[in-house]
Amino acid sequence: QVQLVESGGGLVQPGGSLRLSCAASGFTFSTYAMSWYRQVPGKERELVATISSTGDTTTGADSMKGRFTISRDNAKNTVYLQMSSLKPEDTAVYYCNVRFRFVYYWGQGTQVTVSS
Fold it and tell me: Of 91, 97, 107, nearest to 37 (Cα)?
């Protein structure tokens, strides 16, 4: 079955950096686009970035462009989110996502807290 396992979250000071990872299994990773979302309690889940199956194309939310970079390693079945210049408003649970056979799958999420 499809499994997505995020890691790399934690507490970071404003202006700091973190790299999130999402290890995928249960499907042919190299043939599917992958996305990162984030969610703050009480708010809707928000798309952060998407990367094509080959990694050639990425898209991202305007508010995070230039600060967040999505990438993938198809040999390791892993997608990454490099976050820099973090702000307190980036505090959220970050989720990895894949749409596989018309079903959206999510990982358990990883908490990112930006605070001094």
Answer: 97
Q: What are phi and psi of 62, to 5 degrees?
A: -60, -35
Both tokens assigned to 102 = 């018309």
Q: Residue 70 burial (CB < 10 Å; 0-12/13-18/19+)? A: buried
- DSSP, collapsed to helix, strand or coil, labels residue 89 as helix
**pLDDT tens series, the chain, 116 aa:** 999 999 999 999 999 999 999 999 999 999 999 999 999 989 999 999 999 999 888 888 877 888 999 999 999 999 999 999 999 999 999 999 999 999 999 999 999 999 99
Distance CA 100, CA 83 (A): 26
